[in-house]
Amino acid sequence: MARALDLGRSVLGRTSPNPPVGAVVIDADGMIAGEGATQPPGGPHAEIVALRAAGVRSRGATLVTTLEPCSHTGRTGPCTDALIAAGVAEVSYAVTDPTPEAAGGGRVLTAAGIDVHPGLYADLAAAGALRGWLFAVEHGRPQVTWKYAATLDGRVAAADGSSRWITGDAARVDVHRLRGESDAVLVGSGTVLADDPHLTVRGEDGELADHQPLRVVVDRRGRTPSTARIHDERAETLLLDSADPGHALKVLYDRGIRSVLLEGGPTLAGAFVRAGLVDQVVGYLAPALLGDGPAALGTAGMSTIADALRLRVDDLTVLGGDVRITATPCRRD
Q1: Which domain holds residue 315?
Q2: Each residue of 296-326: pLDDT tens digit?
Q3: Beta strand pairing status for 32-37 and 22-26?
Q4: Are 192 and 235 within one domain?
Q5: Residue 156, CB half-sphere, CA atoms under 13 Å: how many?
Q6: Which of 40, 67, 168, 255 could be joined to 320 by an S-S link, Cβ 3.0–4.6 Å?
Q7: How confident is the model at residue 332 (pLDDT cuts 50, 70, 90)?
Q8: pLDDT tens digits for range 174-196
């Protein structure tokens, strides 16, 4: 299952609207015979990739997968049919499929005489690569991660507007990893005008990654210039003329987007926080002080300490000379 979880994570940002699943086939002798991960939409699911890799060694084997095998026909056929035809003897999966159209694969396999073991490391799987997809299934909108980089006193730029570079190389490499694991990167037109970002994913060598998230600019006043770098051919770009965060997320969800990395400035971040549409926060803090300049978060509808949006710290990691804090908002009932 540990290997299956790694395989699912390796395809984050590449599979939506399908879930990023990993699967491993263990043959009758207890050896790994094949493994796979969900391919881009229209391609085979993780189980099919693993079965093809295992070939005849699938007969009498055990399949370990992060999500319950599907039992319906969508762009591809049911994974349950393939498992039965391959002669698999046992299936262990982590998370039960929550979608009405695909659920029930475990029952189909059991009826076919296959030993089925659900719930193996379910919590770990649900908090890993499947987290964004599971959130989107439950809430009908993409999961939103707000990422920002700031000085220790919370400034995202200096008084003169300069912001390159607040954090060091290690933090910037990690940001590219975060982008690469997201379906879309979202900013406002103010960020485009101020920084003219590419919003692409690059490796440590500076080369473009082979897969790029959708670049999204919220621009209700049509301020994005035609010469902006987000209009190049390095990735697809979508301009949204709505200032409403909820509407923007609906548009993206309808396009198959299941996870969004919010990289906009303080104003856009404030609008999403005010609307209750930030589901995770990743802050990169540099050990530096500016004392002036824009704060990380703009007006968000919180005027007293009692109104503060409290966060649960999930992870704290030192990256070079900087610190990355990953936190989850504590929702009010």
Answers
A1: 141-329
A2: 998 888 888 988 899 999 999 999 999 999 9
A3: antiparallel
A4: yes
A5: 19
A6: 168
A7: low
A8: 999 999 999 999 999 888 988 88
Residues 231 and 162 in one domain: yes
As annotated, the active-site residues are 47
Residues 7, 118: one domain? yes
| Of the residues 77, 97, 132, the one at which a domain ends | 132
| 183 lies in the same domain as 258 | yes
Same domain for 319 and 204, yes or no, is yes
Q: Is the pLDDT of residue 333 over 50?
A: no
| Encoded tokens for 81 | 């049919």
For the chain, the domain total comes to: 2
Closest CA to 54 of 79, 28, 34, 24: 34
What's the pLDDT band for 159 if we cut at 50, 70, 90?
Answer: confident
Amino acid at 101: E
Global pTM? 0.91
Q: Which amino acid is at 321?
A: G
Q: Is the Cα torsion angle 58, 59, 60, 63 positive or negative in sign?
A: positive
Of 108, 132, 156, which closes a domain?
132
CATH, residue 148? 3.40.430.10
